[in-house]
Fold Rho guanine nucleotide exchange factor 3.
Amino acid sequence: TEARPLPPMPIRTRQKASSFPRRRSSQLWSDTVDSMSHELSTKEIKRQEIIYELTQGEKQLIEDLSLVKKVYYEPMLKLDIMTESELGQIFGTLDSLIPLHEDLLARLEGLRGAEKTVQEVGPTMMDWFPCLEAYITYCCNQVGAKALLDQKKQDRRVEHFLRLCQESSFSRKLDLWNFLDLPRSRLVKYPLLLKEIQKSTPPEHPDEDALPEAIELIQKIITEVNLKTGEAECQFYRRGLCYSEDSQRVSEIQASRFLYCHGELKSTKGQKLHVFLFELVLVLTRPLAQDREGPAQFQVYRQPLPAAHLHLEDLPDGEPSSSGSFRGAFTGNDKVKNCFRVSTTGRTKSQSHSLQANDSFNKQQWISCLRQAMVQSRDRQAQTSHCKPSERLSPDPGHRCYPFQQFSHKHRISLLLSS
Protein backbone atom coordinates (compact mmCIF):
# COMPACT_ATOMS: atom_id res chain seq x y z
CA THR A 1 0.00 0.00 0.00
CA GLU A 2 1.08 3.55 -0.63
CA ALA A 3 2.63 5.35 2.33
CA ARG A 4 0.49 8.03 3.91
CA PRO A 5 1.68 11.68 4.07
CA LEU A 6 4.17 12.33 6.83
CA PRO A 7 2.65 13.78 10.00
CA PRO A 8 4.43 16.62 11.82
CA MET A 9 7.39 15.15 13.68
CA PRO A 10 7.61 16.14 17.36
CA ILE A 11 11.21 15.07 17.85
CA ARG A 12 12.84 18.41 17.06
CA THR A 13 10.68 20.27 19.56
CA ARG A 14 10.73 17.81 22.45
CA GLN A 15 11.77 19.73 25.54
CA LYS A 16 12.52 16.60 27.55
CA ALA A 17 15.12 15.39 25.06
CA SER A 18 17.67 17.67 26.70
CA SER A 19 17.62 15.43 29.78
CA PHE A 20 19.65 12.94 27.74
CA PRO A 21 23.07 14.58 27.24
CA ARG A 22 24.71 14.26 23.87
CA ARG A 23 28.08 13.61 25.45
CA ARG A 24 28.75 11.33 28.38
CA SER A 25 30.26 12.72 31.55
CA SER A 26 33.89 11.66 31.98
CA GLN A 27 33.79 12.05 35.75
CA LEU A 28 36.15 9.82 37.72
CA TRP A 29 35.66 8.28 41.14
CA SER A 30 38.34 10.56 42.57
CA ASP A 31 36.29 13.55 41.39
CA THR A 32 33.46 12.48 43.70
CA VAL A 33 35.60 12.26 46.83
CA ASP A 34 36.12 15.52 48.72
CA SER A 35 38.69 14.22 51.16
CA MET A 36 39.92 10.92 52.55
CA SER A 37 40.53 10.18 56.20
CA HIS A 38 43.31 7.79 55.32
CA GLU A 39 45.77 7.44 52.50
CA LEU A 40 44.89 5.01 49.69
CA SER A 41 47.52 3.31 47.59
CA THR A 42 47.72 3.99 43.86
CA LYS A 43 46.52 0.44 43.23
CA GLU A 44 43.50 0.86 45.50
CA ILE A 45 42.57 4.15 43.85
CA LYS A 46 42.65 2.42 40.47
CA ARG A 47 40.48 -0.36 41.86
CA GLN A 48 37.91 2.17 43.07
CA GLU A 49 37.98 3.94 39.70
CA ILE A 50 37.14 0.70 37.86
CA ILE A 51 34.32 -0.15 40.27
CA TYR A 52 32.99 3.37 39.75
CA GLU A 53 33.20 2.85 35.98
CA LEU A 54 31.20 -0.36 36.39
CA THR A 55 28.56 1.52 38.38
CA GLN A 56 28.36 4.46 35.99
CA GLY A 57 28.11 2.09 33.04
CA GLU A 58 24.96 0.61 34.57
CA LYS A 59 23.50 4.05 35.08
CA GLN A 60 24.22 5.06 31.48
CA LEU A 61 22.77 1.82 30.09
CA ILE A 62 19.54 2.36 32.04
CA GLU A 63 19.32 5.92 30.68
CA ASP A 64 19.85 4.71 27.11
CA LEU A 65 17.32 1.87 27.31
CA SER A 66 14.77 4.24 28.83
CA LEU A 67 15.49 6.72 26.04
CA VAL A 68 14.86 4.07 23.39
CA LYS A 69 11.42 3.41 24.78
CA LYS A 70 10.58 7.09 25.25
CA VAL A 71 11.73 8.61 21.94
CA TYR A 72 11.58 5.64 19.54
CA TYR A 73 9.04 3.03 20.58
CA GLU A 74 6.28 5.22 22.01
CA PRO A 75 6.25 7.90 19.25
CA MET A 76 6.38 5.32 16.44
CA LEU A 77 3.44 3.51 18.00
CA LYS A 78 1.45 6.70 18.66
CA LEU A 79 2.08 8.10 15.15
CA ASP A 80 1.26 4.73 13.58
CA ILE A 81 4.65 4.63 11.86
CA MET A 82 4.88 0.92 12.68
CA THR A 83 2.35 -1.51 14.06
CA GLU A 84 2.52 -2.72 17.65
CA SER A 85 3.40 -6.19 16.35
CA GLU A 86 6.32 -4.87 14.26
CA LEU A 87 7.64 -2.78 17.14
CA GLY A 88 7.34 -5.82 19.40
CA GLN A 89 9.48 -7.85 17.02
CA ILE A 90 12.13 -5.14 16.70
CA PHE A 91 12.39 -4.15 20.38
CA GLY A 92 11.92 -7.67 21.69
CA THR A 93 12.22 -8.03 25.47
CA LEU A 94 14.12 -4.77 25.90
CA ASP A 95 11.67 -3.56 28.57
CA SER A 96 12.48 -6.54 30.80
CA LEU A 97 16.21 -5.71 30.86
CA ILE A 98 15.80 -2.28 32.47
CA PRO A 99 14.71 -3.60 35.93
CA LEU A 100 17.62 -6.06 35.92
CA HIS A 101 20.17 -3.29 35.54
CA GLU A 102 18.33 -1.01 37.95
CA ASP A 103 18.69 -3.80 40.49
CA LEU A 104 22.46 -4.08 39.92
CA LEU A 105 22.88 -0.29 40.07
CA ALA A 106 21.10 -0.18 43.42
CA ARG A 107 23.27 -3.01 44.73
CA LEU A 108 26.50 -1.35 43.61
CA GLU A 109 25.54 2.02 45.02
CA GLY A 110 24.63 0.30 48.29
CA LEU A 111 28.18 -1.06 48.55
CA ARG A 112 29.71 2.42 48.82
CA GLY A 113 30.78 3.25 52.36
CA ALA A 114 30.92 6.58 54.14
CA GLU A 115 34.14 7.44 52.31
CA LYS A 116 32.60 6.37 48.98
CA THR A 117 34.84 3.34 48.72
CA VAL A 118 33.70 -0.21 47.89
CA GLN A 119 35.27 -3.15 49.68
CA GLU A 120 33.85 -6.29 48.06
CA VAL A 121 32.20 -6.35 44.64
CA GLY A 122 32.71 -10.01 43.68
CA PRO A 123 29.92 -11.56 45.80
CA THR A 124 27.42 -8.97 44.55
CA MET A 125 28.23 -9.74 40.91
CA MET A 126 28.14 -13.51 41.57
CA ASP A 127 24.68 -13.15 43.07
CA TRP A 128 23.39 -10.95 40.24
CA PHE A 129 24.88 -12.58 37.12
CA PRO A 130 22.38 -15.52 36.89
CA CYS A 131 19.60 -13.08 35.99
CA LEU A 132 21.48 -12.33 32.75
CA GLU A 133 20.08 -15.53 31.29
CA ALA A 134 17.27 -13.19 30.22
CA TYR A 135 19.74 -12.01 27.57
CA ILE A 136 19.34 -15.30 25.71
CA THR A 137 15.80 -14.37 24.66
CA TYR A 138 16.76 -10.80 23.80
CA CYS A 139 19.88 -11.64 21.77
CA CYS A 140 18.21 -14.53 19.92
CA ASN A 141 15.49 -12.12 18.81
CA GLN A 142 18.03 -9.62 17.44
CA VAL A 143 18.66 -11.61 14.25
CA GLY A 144 15.08 -11.27 13.06
CA ALA A 145 14.77 -7.81 14.62
CA LYS A 146 17.63 -6.42 12.54
CA ALA A 147 16.24 -7.94 9.35
CA LEU A 148 12.79 -6.46 10.00
CA LEU A 149 14.22 -3.04 10.89
CA ASP A 150 16.24 -2.94 7.67
CA GLN A 151 13.14 -3.94 5.76
CA LYS A 152 10.98 -1.25 7.40
CA LYS A 153 13.58 1.43 6.59
CA GLN A 154 12.44 1.13 2.98
CA ASP A 155 9.23 2.82 4.11
CA ARG A 156 9.61 6.59 3.64
CA ARG A 157 7.88 7.45 6.92
CA VAL A 158 10.08 5.09 8.94
CA GLU A 159 13.28 6.28 7.30
CA HIS A 160 12.33 9.94 7.83
CA PHE A 161 11.48 9.44 11.52
CA LEU A 162 14.69 7.51 12.27
CA ARG A 163 16.80 10.08 10.42
CA LEU A 164 15.30 12.95 12.46
CA CYS A 165 16.01 11.03 15.66
CA GLN A 166 19.62 10.38 14.70
CA GLU A 167 20.14 14.06 13.85
CA SER A 168 18.74 15.14 17.24
CA SER A 169 21.05 15.86 20.16
CA PHE A 170 19.77 13.06 22.40
CA SER A 171 20.97 10.36 20.00
CA ARG A 172 24.69 11.22 20.23
CA LYS A 173 24.67 10.41 16.47
CA LEU A 174 23.73 6.79 17.19
CA ASP A 175 21.02 5.14 15.13
CA LEU A 176 18.24 2.97 16.52
CA TRP A 177 20.14 -0.26 16.00
CA ASN A 178 23.13 1.09 17.94
CA PHE A 179 20.82 1.58 20.91
CA LEU A 180 19.16 -1.83 20.52
CA ASP A 181 22.61 -3.46 20.44
CA LEU A 182 23.79 -1.77 23.66
CA PRO A 183 22.70 -4.63 25.97
CA ARG A 184 24.80 -7.14 24.03
CA SER A 185 27.77 -4.76 24.09
CA ARG A 186 27.34 -4.33 27.84
CA LEU A 187 27.17 -8.08 28.41
CA VAL A 188 30.60 -8.74 26.90
CA LYS A 189 32.12 -5.89 28.91
CA TYR A 190 31.50 -7.43 32.34
CA PRO A 191 34.39 -9.94 32.27
CA LEU A 192 36.73 -7.21 31.00
CA LEU A 193 35.84 -4.88 33.87
CA LEU A 194 36.08 -7.63 36.47
CA LYS A 195 39.51 -8.67 35.19
CA GLU A 196 40.69 -5.06 35.54
CA ILE A 197 39.35 -4.96 39.10
CA GLN A 198 41.12 -8.26 39.78
CA LYS A 199 44.44 -6.82 38.60
CA SER A 200 44.14 -4.05 41.18
CA THR A 201 43.02 -6.36 43.99
CA PRO A 202 45.87 -7.19 46.41
CA PRO A 203 46.47 -10.66 47.91
CA GLU A 204 44.44 -11.51 51.00
CA HIS A 205 41.74 -9.04 49.93
CA PRO A 206 38.15 -10.25 50.60
CA ASP A 207 37.53 -10.12 46.82
CA GLU A 208 40.51 -12.32 45.98
CA ASP A 209 38.49 -15.55 45.74
CA ALA A 210 35.14 -14.13 44.64
CA LEU A 211 36.35 -12.24 41.55
CA PRO A 212 37.73 -15.30 39.67
CA GLU A 213 34.49 -17.15 40.37
CA ALA A 214 32.43 -14.22 39.11
CA ILE A 215 34.55 -13.98 35.95
CA GLU A 216 34.12 -17.70 35.28
CA LEU A 217 30.36 -17.45 35.77
CA ILE A 218 29.84 -14.48 33.42
CA GLN A 219 32.01 -16.11 30.76
CA LYS A 220 29.83 -19.23 30.91
CA ILE A 221 26.72 -17.08 30.53
CA ILE A 222 28.23 -15.25 27.54
CA THR A 223 29.15 -18.57 25.93
CA GLU A 224 25.58 -19.80 26.38
CA VAL A 225 24.13 -16.57 24.95
CA ASN A 226 26.50 -16.83 21.97
CA LEU A 227 25.56 -20.46 21.38
CA LYS A 228 21.81 -19.85 21.48
CA THR A 229 22.12 -16.71 19.36
CA GLY A 230 24.14 -18.65 16.79
CA GLU A 231 21.44 -21.31 16.65
CA ALA A 232 18.74 -18.67 16.20
CA GLU A 233 20.73 -16.99 13.42
CA CYS A 234 21.23 -20.33 11.67
CA GLN A 235 17.52 -21.13 11.82
CA PHE A 236 16.55 -17.66 10.60
CA TYR A 237 18.67 -17.80 7.44
CA ARG A 238 17.94 -21.46 6.81
CA ARG A 239 14.24 -20.57 6.61
CA GLY A 240 15.06 -17.98 3.95
CA LEU A 241 16.67 -20.48 1.55
CA CYS A 242 14.71 -21.31 -1.63
CA TYR A 243 15.52 -24.48 -3.57
CA SER A 244 15.05 -24.97 -7.29
CA GLU A 245 15.77 -28.71 -7.03
CA ASP A 246 15.17 -31.25 -4.29
CA SER A 247 18.79 -32.43 -4.62
CA GLN A 248 19.90 -29.07 -3.18
CA ARG A 249 18.25 -29.90 0.15
CA VAL A 250 21.33 -31.65 1.50
CA SER A 251 21.18 -33.04 5.03
CA GLU A 252 24.11 -30.87 6.19
CA ILE A 253 21.97 -27.72 5.96
CA GLN A 254 19.36 -29.02 8.40
CA ALA A 255 22.02 -30.59 10.65
CA SER A 256 24.01 -27.35 10.98
CA ARG A 257 23.50 -25.49 14.24
CA PHE A 258 25.28 -22.22 13.51
CA LEU A 259 26.83 -20.02 10.85
CA TYR A 260 30.54 -19.32 10.76
CA CYS A 261 29.88 -16.30 8.54
CA HIS A 262 27.87 -15.05 5.59
CA GLY A 263 28.03 -12.14 3.20
CA GLU A 264 28.39 -10.94 -0.35
CA LEU A 265 31.00 -12.38 -2.73
CA LYS A 266 31.31 -12.10 -6.50
CA SER A 267 31.49 -14.94 -8.99
CA THR A 268 33.89 -15.14 -11.92
CA LYS A 269 31.24 -13.46 -14.06
CA GLY A 270 30.94 -10.56 -11.65
CA GLN A 271 27.60 -11.80 -10.31
CA LYS A 272 26.81 -10.86 -6.72
CA LEU A 273 26.25 -13.94 -4.60
CA HIS A 274 25.24 -14.15 -0.96
CA VAL A 275 27.29 -16.97 0.52
CA PHE A 276 26.48 -18.81 3.76
CA LEU A 277 29.09 -20.89 5.55
CA PHE A 278 27.00 -23.07 7.84
CA GLU A 279 28.54 -25.40 10.41
CA LEU A 280 28.62 -28.32 7.94
CA VAL A 281 28.09 -26.87 4.47
CA LEU A 282 28.88 -23.94 2.18
CA VAL A 283 25.82 -22.59 0.36
CA LEU A 284 25.99 -20.12 -2.53
CA THR A 285 22.80 -18.16 -3.16
CA ARG A 286 21.37 -15.31 -5.20
CA PRO A 287 19.31 -12.80 -3.20
CA LEU A 288 15.74 -12.60 -4.42
CA ALA A 289 13.81 -9.36 -4.76
CA GLN A 290 12.59 -8.68 -1.23
CA ASP A 291 8.92 -8.32 -0.51
CA ARG A 292 8.37 -5.25 1.68
CA GLU A 293 6.12 -7.33 3.93
CA GLY A 294 8.22 -10.48 4.02
CA PRO A 295 11.67 -11.66 5.18
CA ALA A 296 14.70 -11.85 2.90
CA GLN A 297 14.80 -14.85 0.56
CA PHE A 298 17.85 -16.46 -1.04
CA GLN A 299 17.77 -18.71 -4.12
CA VAL A 300 20.25 -21.55 -3.70
CA TYR A 301 22.77 -21.41 -6.56
CA ARG A 302 24.16 -24.72 -7.83
CA GLN A 303 24.72 -27.53 -5.38
CA PRO A 304 25.67 -26.89 -1.71
CA LEU A 305 29.24 -27.92 -0.88
CA PRO A 306 29.64 -30.11 2.26
CA ALA A 307 32.50 -28.77 4.38
CA ALA A 308 33.92 -32.26 4.95
CA HIS A 309 34.55 -32.61 1.17
CA LEU A 310 35.63 -29.03 0.56
CA HIS A 311 38.93 -27.97 -0.98
CA LEU A 312 40.23 -24.40 -0.67
CA GLU A 313 42.76 -22.53 -2.81
CA ASP A 314 44.04 -19.05 -2.08
CA LEU A 315 44.47 -17.25 -5.41
CA PRO A 316 47.37 -14.73 -5.38
CA ASP A 317 46.52 -11.11 -6.18
CA GLY A 318 47.27 -9.93 -9.69
CA GLU A 319 47.39 -13.45 -11.08
CA PRO A 320 44.85 -14.02 -13.87
CA SER A 321 43.10 -17.34 -14.06
CA SER A 322 44.86 -19.84 -16.28
CA SER A 323 41.53 -20.62 -17.90
CA GLY A 324 40.86 -16.96 -18.55
CA SER A 325 37.56 -17.11 -16.70
CA PHE A 326 38.58 -14.21 -14.47
CA ARG A 327 39.83 -12.05 -17.31
CA GLY A 328 38.19 -8.69 -16.96
CA ALA A 329 35.20 -10.15 -15.21
CA PHE A 330 35.43 -7.98 -12.10
CA THR A 331 37.18 -4.73 -12.90
CA GLY A 332 37.66 -4.50 -16.64
CA ASN A 333 41.30 -5.62 -16.60
CA ASP A 334 43.03 -8.97 -16.65
CA LYS A 335 44.34 -8.83 -13.06
CA VAL A 336 42.19 -9.57 -10.05
CA LYS A 337 42.52 -9.24 -6.29
CA ASN A 338 41.09 -10.80 -3.15
CA CYS A 339 40.04 -14.09 -4.79
CA PHE A 340 39.93 -17.68 -3.61
CA ARG A 341 38.58 -20.92 -5.04
CA VAL A 342 36.40 -23.55 -3.37
CA SER A 343 35.77 -26.95 -4.90
CA THR A 344 34.42 -30.30 -3.87
CA THR A 345 34.72 -33.92 -4.87
CA GLY A 346 33.20 -36.99 -3.33
CA ARG A 347 29.63 -38.12 -3.07
CA THR A 348 28.30 -35.33 -5.32
CA LYS A 349 29.24 -34.15 -8.78
CA SER A 350 32.54 -32.28 -8.74
CA GLN A 351 32.21 -28.50 -8.88
CA SER A 352 34.43 -25.47 -8.45
CA HIS A 353 33.73 -21.81 -7.69
CA SER A 354 36.19 -18.91 -7.83
CA LEU A 355 35.00 -16.09 -5.61
CA GLN A 356 36.09 -12.52 -4.94
CA ALA A 357 35.82 -10.77 -1.56
CA ASN A 358 35.36 -7.03 -1.07
CA ASP A 359 38.90 -6.51 0.22
CA SER A 360 41.92 -8.41 1.53
CA PHE A 361 40.65 -8.36 5.11
CA ASN A 362 37.34 -9.99 4.16
CA LYS A 363 39.16 -12.52 2.02
CA GLN A 364 41.39 -13.62 4.89
CA GLN A 365 38.42 -13.93 7.22
CA TRP A 366 36.59 -16.09 4.71
CA ILE A 367 39.65 -18.28 4.26
CA SER A 368 40.11 -18.59 8.03
CA CYS A 369 36.49 -19.60 8.56
CA LEU A 370 36.50 -22.02 5.64
CA ARG A 371 39.61 -23.75 6.96
CA GLN A 372 38.09 -24.05 10.40
CA ALA A 373 34.85 -25.46 9.01
CA MET A 374 36.76 -27.98 6.88
CA VAL A 375 38.90 -29.19 9.80
CA GLN A 376 36.02 -29.51 12.26
CA SER A 377 33.76 -31.23 9.72
CA ARG A 378 36.46 -33.77 8.86
CA ASP A 379 37.19 -34.37 12.53
CA ARG A 380 33.48 -34.95 13.10
CA GLN A 381 33.33 -37.33 10.15
CA ALA A 382 36.35 -39.26 11.42
CA GLN A 383 34.83 -39.43 14.90
CA THR A 384 31.50 -40.81 13.72
CA SER A 385 33.14 -43.35 11.38
CA HIS A 386 34.99 -44.95 14.32
CA CYS A 387 32.03 -45.04 16.70
CA LYS A 388 28.97 -47.19 16.98
CA PRO A 389 25.76 -45.32 16.09
CA SER A 390 24.77 -45.15 19.77
CA GLU A 391 28.18 -43.67 20.66
CA ARG A 392 28.35 -41.00 17.99
CA LEU A 393 28.74 -37.53 19.35
CA SER A 394 27.85 -34.20 17.90
CA PRO A 395 30.64 -31.61 17.76
CA ASP A 396 31.24 -29.88 21.06
CA PRO A 397 29.43 -26.50 21.00
CA GLY A 398 32.28 -25.13 23.08
CA HIS A 399 34.60 -25.64 20.10
CA ARG A 400 32.71 -23.12 18.04
CA CYS A 401 34.77 -20.07 17.22
CA TYR A 402 33.14 -16.69 16.71
CA PRO A 403 35.63 -15.30 14.19
CA PHE A 404 33.88 -11.98 13.58
CA GLN A 405 33.18 -10.88 17.14
CA GLN A 406 36.15 -8.53 17.09
CA PHE A 407 35.37 -7.06 13.66
CA SER A 408 35.01 -3.35 13.22
CA HIS A 409 31.42 -2.20 12.65
CA LYS A 410 32.11 -1.93 8.91
CA HIS A 411 33.15 -5.56 8.57
CA ARG A 412 30.42 -6.85 10.86
CA ILE A 413 27.96 -5.22 8.48
CA SER A 414 29.34 -7.02 5.47
CA LEU A 415 29.90 -10.45 6.97
CA LEU A 416 27.90 -11.10 10.12
CA LEU A 417 24.19 -10.43 10.52
CA SER A 418 24.56 -7.54 8.03
CA SER A 419 24.53 -5.40 11.12
In short: The radius of gyration is 25 Å. The first helix runs from residue 29 to 32. The mean pLDDT is 82. The chain has 14 helices and nine strands.
